């Protein structure tokens, strides 16, 4: 028998976002659609450079240190520049916050729009030179009604974000996005140059079989973390211990957690007293996606999306993933209290 010809019903990211806009009716201005177009372009641009990094001398250090005291890689700096340029040029942004910039950028009037974008241009820097999965993370706020765009527009709880997502540069480039109405995943078709809908309506399984922590920090972990990890490694008789998977790129570890279930954690500990991951452009977008996919994101004692940031590079401890798994961590914190 003959195979059916390929489908002509390709749903691209642009088409999907446009459809959502049409669904919202004439009141929707289309500005978010245009902003998301700018963001997907930056992901394609970064993906191209990631693929070629080894060939075009884009591996290794840039020579500077960022405000968090991390040595910047060439790809950190390039990805940051790509995003700042495209987001400013989109005419849809008012405030930009990047991991790689000390201060927020307030966009000049000529280009000013009504959205604020907080982003980690290149997540998983330590994995770049080994060719292991890395990514880009972003969150979007709309400026408050009375505002011209100030730092106060981004020092707001993650629950007020209007959209969040990430792109993972792995065996393929995958963009995962939520505009507050579930989570969808798209895969870059390099021949078309388009992100194509491949993972509609992602839902995290309510329970998984994988835990994902940097256990090299065990010496510093607080008791609830230690007790939780022991519970998955040494379960009561008859239950199977969890598998360990830890890539060290939040984007990749969260992506696997969304698809397979389980738990990802980077808790605060005796050494990293505020945690390591950054609230605005790592924890908030990933917590937003996790909740939209039916999971939970917590510090152990508090919902991540309820935290009110006081500075743009603020850090937090985080656990996220399958509902039932994360609930168990929370129980260990309650027992300690
Ligand atoms: P970034 O590369 O953007 O600075 O982020 C690194 C983060 C995150 O990707 C990952 O989850 C975590 O740091 C890994 O930290 P460890 O190397 O301490 O495990
Ligand atoms: Mn970094
Ligand atoms: Mn990061
Ligand atoms: Mn980064």
TrEMBL record:
Alphabetical list of SUPFAM superfamilies matching this protein: Carbohydrate phosphatase
Residues annotated as domain Fructose-1-6-bisphosphatase class I N-terminal: 11-200
Pathway: Carbohydrate biosynthesis
Listed Gene3D superfamilies: 3.40.190.80, Fructose-1,6-Bisphosphatase, subunit A, domain 1 (3.30.540.10)
Biological process, per Gene Ontology: fructose 1,6-bisphosphate metabolic process; fructose 6-phosphate metabolic process; fructose metabolic process; gluconeogenesis; sucrose biosynthetic process
Class in the EC hierarchy, top level: hydrolase
Gene Ontology CC entries for this record: cytosol
Residue ranges of every copy of the Fructose-1-6-bisphosphatase class 1 C-terminal domain listed in the record: 204-333
Entry keyword annotation includes Cytoplasm: yes
EC number: 3.1.3.11
CDD domains, per the entry: FBPase
Entry cofactors: Mg(2+)
Keywords: Carbohydrate metabolism, Cytoplasm, Hydrolase, Magnesium, Metal-binding
Compartments (UniProt record): Cytoplasm
Catalyzed chemical reaction(s): beta-D-fructose 1,6-bisphosphate + H2O = beta-D-fructose 6-phosphate + phosphate
GO MF annotation: an example: fructose 1,6-bisphosphate 1-phosphatase activity
Family of this protein: Belongs to the FBPase class 1 family.
Subunit (UniProt): Homotetramer.
Record PANTHER family: FRUCTOSE-1,6-BISPHOSPHATASE-RELATED, FRUCTOSE-BISPHOSPHATASE
Stated name of the protein: Fructose-1,6-bisphosphatase
């Amino acid at each position: 028998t003959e195979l059916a010809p390929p489908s002509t019903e390709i749903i691209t990211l642009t088409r999907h976002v446009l459809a959502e806009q049409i669904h919202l009716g004439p009141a929707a201005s289309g500005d978010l659609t245009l902003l998301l177009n700018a963001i997907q372009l930056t992901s394609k641009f970064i993906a191209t450079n990631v693929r070629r990094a080894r060939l075009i001398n884009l591996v290794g250090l840039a020579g500077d240190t960022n405000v968090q005291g991390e040595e910047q890689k060439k790809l950190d700096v390039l990805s940051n520049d790509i995003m700042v340029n495209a987001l400013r040029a989109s005419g849809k942004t008012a405030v930009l916050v990047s991991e790689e910039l000390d201060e927020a950028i307030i966009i000049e009037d000529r280009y000013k729009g009504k959205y604020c974008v907080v982003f980690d241009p290149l997540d998983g820097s330590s994995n770049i030179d080994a060719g292991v999965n890395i990514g880009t993370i972003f969150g979007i706020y709309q400026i408050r009604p009375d505002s011209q765009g100030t730092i106060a527009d981004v020092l707001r709880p993650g629950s007020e974000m209007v959209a969040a997502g990430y792109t993972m540069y792995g065996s393929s480039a995958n963009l995962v996005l939520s505009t507050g109405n579930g989570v969808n995943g798209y895969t870059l078709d390099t021949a078309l140059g388009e992100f194509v809908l491949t993972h509609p309506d992602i839902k995290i399984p309510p329970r998984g079989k994988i835990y994902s922590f940097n256990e090299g920090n065990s010496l510093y972990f607080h008791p609830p973390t230690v007790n939780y990890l022991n519970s998955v490694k040494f379960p009561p008789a008859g239950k199977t211990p969890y598998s360990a998977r830890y890539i060290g790129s939040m984007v990749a570890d969260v992506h696997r957690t969304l698809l397979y279930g389980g738990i990802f954690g980077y808790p605060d500990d005796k050494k990293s007293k505020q945690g390591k991951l950054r609230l605005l452009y790592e924890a908030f977008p990933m917590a937003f996606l996790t909740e939209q996919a039916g999971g939970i994101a917590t510090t152990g004692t508090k919902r991540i999306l309820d935290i009110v940031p006081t500075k743009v590079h603020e850090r937090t401890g985080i656990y996220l993933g399958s509902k039932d798994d994360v609930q168990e961590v929370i129980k260990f914190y309650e027992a300690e209290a």
